[in-house]
Amino acid sequence: MQVGVPKEIKAAEARVGLTPAGARELVAHGHRVFVETNAGSAAGFADEAYTAQGAEILDSAEAVFDAAEMIVKVKEPQSVEYKRLRADQLLFTYLHLAPDAEQTQGLIDSGCVAIAYETVTGANGGLPLLSPMSEVAGRLSVQAGAAALENVTGGAGVLLGGVPGVPPAKVTVIGGGVVGTNALRMAVGLGAHVTVVDKSIDRLRELDELYGSRLTTLYSNTENLESAVTEADLVIGAVLLPGAAAPKLVTREMIAGMRPGSAVVDVAIDQGGCFETSRPTSHAEPTYTVDGVVHYCVTNMPGCVARTSTFALTNATLPYVLQLADKGYKQALTDNSHLAAGLNVHKGQVTHEAVASNLGHTYVPAADALAS
Ligand SMILES: NC(=O)C1=CN([C@@H]2O[C@H](COP(=O)(O)OP(=O)(O)OC[C@H]3O[C@@H](n4cnc5c(N)ncnc54)[C@H](O)[C@@H]3O)[C@@H](O)[C@H]2O)C=CC1
Ligand SMILES: CC(=O)C(=O)O
User: Fold this and answer.
1) Ligand 2 proximity of 158 Cβ (cutoff 6 Å)
2) Which of 73-106 are b and which e, b meaning 16 or more Cβ less than 10 Å from the residue's Cβ?
3) What would the pLDDT profile of 220-254 be if each residue is shown by its tens digit?
4) Residue 8 C-alpha to ligand 2 middle, in angstroms?
5) What is the pTM of this model?
6) Which CATH class name applies to 2-119+306-371?
7) Which of 157, 185, 297, 361 could pair with 151 as two cysteines, CB 3.0-4.6 Å apart?
8) ipTM above 0.95, yes or no
9) Under CATH, which number does the domain 131-299 receive?
């Protein structure tokens, strides 16, 4: 198969869809890999690193899209990119379609086959292609939150760990999944007073076992959310309903009830965000303030630690890229129901139930779409 890796063009996105080591595996399987010039340079992978592994460098995104049967990316295609997609083309990348009607329509109109990393499921549960970036974003969320609490950003000037004689900050993490666990691990490590809120009692039980008295666990209901949010210096939003738009768990009233100079980091912003006051921001201008509360809502947080993130992403995606390239998408999805769970759009049809229901499209099950 001809596999194309264009340079990412989302603002301040420095990751790339494939490492040189990943390109080497594809070439060893008999595939051709076309990489746009400088696609990996911000992550520390020069063009020569790809050519040394048998990949071919092309001088523009157009040339990569023209040459490829499968496009492997990191972020959802921007409008110039989905206009380049062809009806016979396979797209494998993060999509986050539920809160993004425009991109969904663009993919439908292109006629392409679009598989979203974030809805591929794991044989042992979980979301194996979302997890590595959730690990990165969870860890980064505490760094971002710490910076947001600094005076220079508009924060109250609070140090997460406090110092002897001055109490640590209160950090509330909403959602104790992969992002939440990595966030609370960093916050506990820095000495903050940490509370995690989840609707899964089993998950709260596991976290309680792991962290004991260093962590407060709270069941997710409106009353508990209200107190855990308004009492916190920093709130990290990390909920997910796979494939669907994030639930708006934190209302504007709760935000207004926080002390001025407090901060929120909405990691779930890529699925629309779980704070009513959230709107997407970029690494260039990551924060804004509502009711005195600093908001950080960057939709591609791992993009700022591109080298770590690109290794972690390719480690997870490569086995699936190889299945798609070796077998072709129809056979690969038929053989692997977990990979088939990633199929979001197939030749003009929406094949993910939550995306279809959030955006008012007709839902066509993946099995029916593949059989047609
Ligand atoms: N902004 C960015 O750059 C990035 C964003 N993300 C996003 O972070 C979000 C979280 O991802 P993961 O941690 O991997 O998901 P996950 O599935 O591992 O965890 C989600 C957690 O939310 C909990 N939850 C669901 N409904 C809840 C409710 N009403 N109240 C409290 N908890 C609730 C679940 O029980 C689960 O423990 C996703 O939207 C993901 O796309 C991930 C990576 C990067
Ligand atoms: C998960 C995602 O959207 C990201 O890593 O940017």
Assistant:
1) no
2) bbbbbeeebbebbeeebbbbbbbbbbbbeebbeb
3) 999 999 999 999 999 999 999 999 999 999 999 99
4) 12
5) 0.97
6) alpha beta
7) 157
8) yes
9) 3.40.50.720
